[in-house]
Amino acid sequence: MKQKKRKTPETENLTSMNNDLERGAGPRRFSYTDLATATNNFSNERKLGHGGFGAVYRGYLADLDTVVAVKKISSGSRQGRKEYMTEVKIISSLRHRNLVQLIGWCHDGGQFLLVYEFMPNGSLDTHLFGKSRSALSWPVRYKISLGLGSVLLYLHEEWEQCVVHRDIKSSNIMLDSSFNVKLGDFGLARLMDHELGPQTTGVVGTLGYMAPEYIRTGRASKESDVYSFGVVTLEIATGKKSVDVMGKDSEMGLIEWVWDLYGKGQFLLAVDERLHSDYNEKQVECLMIVGLWCTHPDPSSRPSIRQAVHVLNFEAALPNLPANMPVPMYHAPTPSVSSGEPLITTSIEAGR
């Protein structure tokens, strides 16, 4: 008599997820064959980029007559499979104009794939730091900052649960044909009740975008997301990477450098040279000061995303920040590292 195969917790999770999703009107299930056909068998010519847990390919779905981006999780990546399940569960429930739309999913025979709407203008980091000839104009940059603020406000305060993204960075901010923001990659996201404070989740994310207290304690929070948002706004204004060292003889990173210029009343020197002084000075001042406010070393001195968005929309006054960057104070214990998973997932150059 044949023995029945025991179901693993992962198999049971996938089965219940299938049932939940197939009942809804959201993303649909695709077969592996469908997606292999759509991407010319995941050919290198179709590859759009490579991240920590897999590659993304351009695909064409004939039955929907639409171009898509197909993310294929590396086989054997336990963390990748975990992120796949988190992403499908969370992003399939969310609805916002500044979120990348999840079109479908597939887990056939140990293969895990996600299907997204295709973004013709790629990711923000390629425009800010890539070799592309044309720099983003200032109005487009300001629009991107407002779009990112808008979707973060939705995630933190306007959905039924609070969603802490945990990996806000320029390479996860996609741009559609009109350069509207589409925030993607919810593989590290966590759902929290609105009333609860920071949760100990283990440290994951990307160096340069992670709040100092999060690296130290492993407690993800709305404040740590706001910090990442602040870093991105400074990158947008300066055209410099968060991890760059500013100047040959300087040990300063991006935040320290901008804060130093702010203290001297010279922050316009930080504006991306590729803009050739073609920008709105009032908006530049606003974006940089909000960026510094959001990256304040003390999380209790950061704004909520709602407060930051109000200032960016000129609906509230600019904050008064100290001339010198404050030194962070810590009282929390250092987390112990458990599980076989990496403590920090760094992907500074990962992806597109």
From TrEMBL:
Annotated Pfam families: Pkinase
Chief place of localization: membrane
UniProt keywords, alphabetically: ATP-binding, Cell membrane, Glycoprotein, Kinase, Membrane, Nucleotide-binding, Receptor, Serine/threonine-protein kinase, Signal, Transferase, Transmembrane, Transmembrane helix
GO terms of biological process kind: defense response to oomycetes
Localization annotation: Cell membrane
Annotated binding of ATP, by residue: K72
GO cellular component terms attached to this protein's record: plasma membrane
Membrane topology annotation: Single-pass type I membrane protein
Recorded superkingdom: Eukaryota
Ranges where the record places region Disordered: 1-26
Location of the Protein kinase domain: 42-318
Molecular function terms, GO-annotated: ATP binding; protein serine/threonine kinase activity
PANTHER family named among the record's database cross-references: PTHR27007
Family the UniProt entry places it in: In the N-terminal section; belongs to the leguminous lectin family.
Protein name: Protein kinase domain-containing protein
Organism: Rubus argutus
